[in-house]
């Protein structure tokens, strides 16, 4: 530390606003006394996370000193997460985590949220002063850059970073890191990549390797990016962000199974991050891994408590996967899942007493009862749901939930009506359309779905190998599981048409194909198989006509 | 984490106990600091307060190492390597010992370039340096030197004193003596064992960190050296 700078520090301390957060009063008092002796005048204190977040809403603190483990309430990490989430902490402010916690999960968990510094308990005055001095000098030096970052004035921030580096600044490493990230943010991938590669040519540094991978991801160079993330994990098995991005890269390349495996590893290293658990739940659901989805959503509900990520959806997702789990499981297991589902949904409606939550919860509950063959309970729950729903203005996710339940109650026509009107109302939203399609395609239980998909895959490979009869039989078997599945029906029609090429079929045989086309008639014009349906219908029609006239 | 609630995971129990103890230590050290400010000069010089601080520091170091060694055995210890300004880092470690060293009339010199940068796990390396400082404070006559420099491929930390130095058997092969820790000889071997393992966890390419003990050095006493790639 430069002597001239250090001498000016008391003046700086005098101007800064501090917040001390700790659940022990004696600790708050003792840190307050230390700060006073450094010359700090404005010091607020807070005994818990909730109050701390509140205080940060009304006051701009320059430095927050926050304890990590604060009894039953929010942890320091959750406080930081919430402040960042609501953008109540400027880049120019410092959040310093005070911790006696050495458990691995906590240390990694907090590293992810990136506080500006750590101070380990026990704190003595001399140590606190040294640490604060260094942090404040750095803050002072980087203040102009951080101010531009707060204003999202990236070009200016880039200029200032470059100047600071050219000056031979003490903080040039911070500037390199920030500069590369700024290039990335502004879409200047070439410069970002070059910077990361320059740094890596001198030393293996985790953030540079991660940055390089991210730049490659942004340029859709997924296989290169995958190599970077694998290298990172190889060097440092606890670097969770690397797992997140590796999983994302796998997802982008269609490898959802691998994506799930990697994300699962990340959650076992750092289980406290709620968005990661949520995403794992989604991946498991897509991969039809019910057990995996249930355990991820359970973790979501558990760790989201007190956090900014707490939401009704966490409970509903858990309820959904438990409801799916009791369909087709062994009776004892099914009963266990059903009870837990009802319990979870109950908690959701108690905690979030809103109409949309109550409607979704009752719809899921209806399916749970139906799965347990308790028709009376299912009817009662469904009645509650219906009383809360206005079909003409229903939101997409409740609408899909509604249709799912209608299918489960064998009210197929009504389910299709609901989905058709949803498809019209949300025709510009590809995500909603694709979930509507998925439901229209396979309104059957998850286990049937899995079997039908397996058979469909096999049918396609028979077709590709030229075994047409085998392919036809396999598609027919698959249709027994998912009779309305559009792609499946259309695949069958296509293969049968192909098998007619070398022979002259009977007219009845050709017309028989209409039965399969009829199975698909429920899809709306927005469906991605719709064009294929019309073109195949035309082919069947003209073939039948040519046989008639010929 | 264990699934069986009746059989708690020992590391969790230990971690939460350590957490609790460190909170207490924190209060203890702060109260000591306040008391020593109010004490008359002759009491300050008596070194009784310093002894209290010294022992509290030792308990703190032991706790860190205890947990560290436990994690090592279970393959749960991992390093978080970041860039640090070494002078700031060393000054902070020295600050912990200011009162103690003053009361014993031991002078501590830091020798390190202002903007020297190193890559290492801050908490673990701090633990090693603190432990060595505690040790040096016991064996030195009146001088300790904390030195850091780059030797081309490594960042080197050196703690030397003008005491009688290490026994010759320890200097020969610091890697060897940890094979069987002799707890009767005090915390020295545990500290060295921890330092040895932490150094090994620091890797860069094919290189790993190492530790050395020797006698002589800048001040003529014991020298503890840790090289990190």
Outline the secondary-structure elements:
The complex is a heterodimer of chains A (about 550) and B (about 230).
Chain A lengths: L2 H13 L1 E5 L3 H14 L3 E5 L2 H10 L4 E5 L8 H10 L8 E6 L4 H10 L3 E4 L4 H26 L3 H13 L5 H14 L3 H14 L3 H13 L3 H14 L4 H13 L3 H14 L4 H13 L3 H15 L7 H15 L4 H21 L3 H17 L3 H14 L7 H13 L3 H14 L4 H12 L4 H20 L2 H14 L4 H14 L7 H13 L10 H20 L1
Parallel strand pairs in A: 1-2, 1-3, 3-4, 4-5
Helix pairs in contact in A: 3-4, 4-5, 6-7, 7-8, 8-9, 8-10, 9-10, 10-11, 10-12, 11-12, 12-13, 13-14, 14-15, 15-16, 16-17, 16-18, 17-18, 18-19, 18-20, 20-21, 20-22, 21-22, 23-24, 24-25, 25-26, 25-27, 26-27
Chain B lengths: L9 H29 L2 H6 L1 H26 L7 E5 H11 L1 H6 L3 E5 L5 E5 H18 L3 E8 L4 E7 L6 H5 L15 H14 L1 E2 L2 E2 L1 E6 L6 E7 L1
Parallel strand pairs in B: 2-4
Antiparallel strand pairs in B: 1-3, 4-5, 5-9, 6-7, 8-9
Helix pairs in contact in B: 1-3, 3-6, 3-8, 4-6, 6-8
Descriptive notes:
- The complex is a heterodimer of chains A (550) and B (229).
- Chain A is mostly helical.
- Chain A contains 27 helices and five strands.
- Chain A has a five-stranded parallel β-sheet with strand order 2-1-3-4-5, with helices on both faces.
- In chain A, strand 3 (63-67), helix 4 and strand 4 (94-99) form a beta-alpha-beta unit.
- The N and C termini of chain A lie far apart (97 Å).
- Chain B is α+β, with helices and mostly antiparallel strands and 229 residues long.
- Helices cover 50% and strands 21% of the residues of chain B.
- Chain B is built from eight helices and nine strands.
- Chain B has helices at residues 10-38, 41-46, 48-73, 86-96, 98-103, 122-139, 168-172, 188-201, and strands spanning 81-85, 107-111, 117-121, 143-150, 155-161, 203-204, 207-208, 210-215, 222-228.
- A five-stranded mixed β-sheet of chain B has the order 2-4-5-9-8. In chain B, strands 1-3 form a two-stranded antiparallel sheet.
- In chain B, a hairpin with a 2-residue loop joins strand 6 and strand 7.
- In chain B, helix 3 (48-73) packs across helix 6, helix 3 (48-73) crosses helix 8 (188-201) and helix 6 packs antiparallel against helix 8.
- The mean pLDDT of chain B is 80.
- Chain A binds chain B through residues 1-2, 24, 26-27, 30, 33, 69, 100-104, 107, 111, 118, 120-127, 129-131, 134, 170, 173, 203-206, 235-238, and chain B through 11-12, 15-16, 18-19, 22-23, 25-30, 33-34, 56, 60, 64, 67, 71, 76, 78, 80-81, 83, 85, 87-88, 91-92, 95-96, 98-99, 114-115, 117, 119, 122-123, 126, 203-205.
């Amino acid at each position: 530390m430069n002597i001239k700078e250090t001498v000016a520090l008391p003046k700086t301390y005098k101007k800064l606003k501090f917040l001390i957060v700790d659940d022990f009063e004696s600790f708050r008092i003792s840190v307050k006394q230390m700060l006073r002796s450094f010359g700090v005048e404005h010091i607020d204190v807070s005994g818990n996370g909730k109050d701390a977040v509140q205080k940060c809403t009304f006051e701009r603190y320059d430095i927050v000193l926050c304890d990590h483990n604060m009894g039953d309430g929010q942890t320091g990490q959750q406080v930081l997460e919430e402040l960042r989430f609501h953008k109540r902490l400027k880049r120019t402010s410092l959040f310093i985590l005070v911790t006696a916690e050495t458990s691995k999960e906590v240390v990694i968990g907090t590293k992810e949220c990136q506080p500006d510094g750590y101070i380990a308990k026990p704190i003595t005055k001399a140590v606190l002063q040294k640490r604060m001095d260094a942090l404040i000098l750095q803050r002072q030096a980087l203040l102009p850059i951080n101010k531009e970052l707060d204003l999202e004035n990236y070009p200016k921030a880039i200029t200032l970073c470059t100047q600071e580096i050219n000056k031979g600044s003490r903080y040039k490493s911070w500037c390199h890191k920030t500069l590369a990230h700024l290039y990335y943010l502004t879409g200047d991938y070439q410069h970002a990549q070059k910077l990361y590669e320059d740094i890596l040519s001198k030393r293996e540094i985790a953030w540079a390797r991660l940055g390089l991978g991210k730049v490659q991801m942004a340029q859709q160079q997924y296989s290169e990016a995958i190599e970077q993330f694998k290298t990172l994990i190889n060097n440092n098995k606890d670097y969770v962000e690397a797992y997140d991005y590796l999983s994302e890269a796998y997802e982008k390349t269609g490898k959802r199974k691998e994506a799930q495996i990697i994300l699962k590893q990340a959650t076992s290293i750092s289980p406290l991050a709620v968005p990661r658990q949520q995403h794992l739940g989604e991946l498991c659901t897509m991969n039809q891994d019910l057990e995996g989805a249930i355990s991820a959503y359970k973790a979501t509900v558990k760790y989201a408590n007190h956090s900014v990520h707490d939401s009704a959806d966490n409970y509903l997702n858990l309820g959904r996967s438990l409801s799916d789990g009791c369909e087709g499981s062994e009776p004892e297991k099914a009963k266990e899942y059903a009870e837990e589902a009802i319990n979870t949904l109950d908690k959701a409606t108690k905690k979030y007493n809103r109409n949309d939550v109550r409607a979704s919860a009752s719809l899921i509950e209806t399916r749970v009862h139906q799965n347990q063959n308790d028709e009376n309970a299912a009817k009662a729950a469904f009645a509650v749901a219906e009383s809360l729903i206005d079909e003409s203005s229903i939101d997409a996710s409740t609408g899909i939930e509604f249709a799912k339940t209608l299918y489960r109650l064998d009210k197929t026509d009504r389910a299709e009506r609901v989905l058709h009107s949803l498809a019209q109302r949300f025709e510009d939203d590809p995500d909603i359309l694709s979930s509507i399609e998925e439901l229209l395609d396979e309104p059957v239980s998850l286990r049937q779905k899995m079997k039908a998909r397996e058979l469909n895959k096999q049918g396609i490979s028979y077709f590709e190998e030229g075994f047409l009869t085998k392919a036809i039989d396999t598609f027919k078997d698959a249709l027994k599981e998912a009779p309305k599945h559009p792609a499946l029906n259309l695949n069958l029609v296509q293969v049968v048409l192909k098998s007619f090429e070398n022979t002259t079929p009977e007219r009845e045989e050709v017309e028989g194909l209409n039965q399969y086309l009829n199975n698909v008639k429920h899809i709306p014009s927005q469906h991605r198989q719709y064009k294929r349906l019309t073109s195949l219908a035309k082919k069947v029609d003209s073939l039948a006509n040519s046989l008639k006239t010929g | 984490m264990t699934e069986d609630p009746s059989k708690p995971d020992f590391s969790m129990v230990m971690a939460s106990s350590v957490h609790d103890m460190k909170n207490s230590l924190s209060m203890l050290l702060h109260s000591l600091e306040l008391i020593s400010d109010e004490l008359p000069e002759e009491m300050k010089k008596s070194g009784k307060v310093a002894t209290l601080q010294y022992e509290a520091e030792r308990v703190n170091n032991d706790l860190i190492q205890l947990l560290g060694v436990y994690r090592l055995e279970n393959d749960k210890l991992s390093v978080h390597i970041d860039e640090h300004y070494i002078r700031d880092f060393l000054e902070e470690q020295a600050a912990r010992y200011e009162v103690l060293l003053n009361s014993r009339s031991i002078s501590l010199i830091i020798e390190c370039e202002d903007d020297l940068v190193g890559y290492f796990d801050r908490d673990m390396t701090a633990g090693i340096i603190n432990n060595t400082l505690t040790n040096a404070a016991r064996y030195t006559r009146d001088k300790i030197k904390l030195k850091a420099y780059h030797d081309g491929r490594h960042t080197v930390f050196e703690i030397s004193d003008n005491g009688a130095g290490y026994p010759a058997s320890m200097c020969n092969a610091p890697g060897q003596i940890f094979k069987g820790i002799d707890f009767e000889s005090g915390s020295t071997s545990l500290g060295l064992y921890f330092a040895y393992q932490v150094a090994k966890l620091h890797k860069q390419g094919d290189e790993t960190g190492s530790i050395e003990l020797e006698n002589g050095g800048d001040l003529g006493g014991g020298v503890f050296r840790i090289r990190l790639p």
